[in-house]
Amino acid sequence: MNIKKFRKPSLTIVLVYAFLALAVFTMLAPYYWMVITSIKPQEEIQTYPPKFYVESPTAKPYQDLFRLVPMWRHLFNSLFVCSSVVLFKVFACSLAGYAFAKHKFWGRDIIFMLFLASLMIPWQVNIIPGFILIKKLGWINTYKGLIVPTLGWGAFGIFLNRQFIYSIPDDLIDAARIDGCGEFRIYVSVILPLIKPVLATLAIFTFIQQWGNLVWPLIITTSREMKTIPVALATLSSQTSSNFGMLMAAAVVATAPMLVVFLLFQKYIIKGVALTGLKG
């Protein structure tokens, strides 16, 4: 019977795990404080020194939040906008990535480099021209104004898909062509099943980025019913700055979808980034 000898961990491993534990604590501590504050009565919130636990938990901050603020409408707006942007970018970026990786056409490399160069342009540069264009189209305070301008920023998604699809053997595509498949059929039946990790990664990144988008919705939404979650939080914090319980409840509601999405699909992020590489 072989019994493996216990090896004493080296100082380097101990330091690495200590650093990781400190990083986890640093990231979780604010969220823990936000959650417990959202269920504290106002008297406990105002106590000094502050307590890191709840003596008398209450749901009143959440009740006040959904009674005074149309949170369900804000949640729907954010979910609808994020879902629309995610679906379009997953489809368009994967299709463009397939074209750049497996098709040869005039100016392919130049066009691809132009897409990559667009990543260096600060997004703030496009705010004023974008607002003028949306105003002329009559899309102020509409879902079209919230969704359409954000669809054009797909350079990162195209790069991610192109690098992954580039590593797929050409023999699979040639075999599909011999069987009589057209280009779109090859994309649907051959390419899409093989790039699920990258599509999941792109979808998660896009969802998280779009969910936290504040500046653009703040500029083009004028009515209370069209505001997204970040805009609603900014408005709420300026109107009820003294009601910390309700503010923390709103923050919990706003961050919960992102946390759930990340926890459910984090393995796809790691797998997708690890498999993408920089080949090509």
CATH architecture grouping of the largest domain: Orthogonal Bundle
Percentage of residues assigned to helices = over 70%
Let me know the largest β-sheet.
none
Mean pLDDT over the residues = 81
Distance between the ends: 50 Å
Strand content: under 5%
How many domains make up the coordinates?
Answer: 2
Query: Structural class, judged by helices and strands?
Result: mainly alpha
CATH H-level superfamily of the largest domain: MetI-like
Series of secondary-structure elements, N-terminal to C-terminal: HHHHHHHHHHHHHH
- What top-tier CATH class of the largest domain fits best? Mainly Alpha
Q: Could you say which overall geometry the principal axes of the C-alpha atoms support?
A: globular
Question: Rg, please?
Answer: 24 Å
**Count of separate DSSP helical elements:** 14
Low-confidence runs of at least 5 consecutive residues = none
Number of strands: 0
Here the CATH topology of the largest domain equals MetI-like fold
